[in-house]
Amino acid sequence: xxxxxxxxxxxxxxxxxxxxxxxxxxxxxxxxxxxxxxxxxxxxxxxxxxxxxxxxxxxxxxxxxxxxxxxxxxxxxxxxxxxxxxxxxxxxxxxxxxxxxxxxxxxxxxxxxxxxxxxxxxxxxxxxxxxxxxxxxxxxxxxxxxxxxxx
Length: 151
Fold this sequence. Notes:
By secondary structure, the chain is an alpha/beta fold. Helices cover 28% and strands 25% of the residues. β3 (23-24) and β4 form a beta hairpin.
């Protein structure tokens, strides 16, 4: 993933597993804050991020022609900003990536899925407000399911 430094505008390559971390710009050494906006992804990026994320991942399945999806955009942006460093927010265009929509049983859009450790914690269609998205992220923020059975 490429992130632009807010201080010097240098483009920095960030590994998917560090999108929720604060890093440093390779050029000016200024802090690079965690991802605080929704990230439009393709199937490969989606898989890389979901597989390596250390925090919950909120996925907004949407399409450009969908009115309710456009209404959800500012709500999704608000949730991404409010949970920067505590969640990663992804947007998947269902017209461009129908295989991802099918994989998650998306039958209507907007459709939201919250994943933790690759497992679905929440899956719901319909327009929701940022407060509900944040509540789902917080609910998923508990123990990592991949480590839940480790003694």
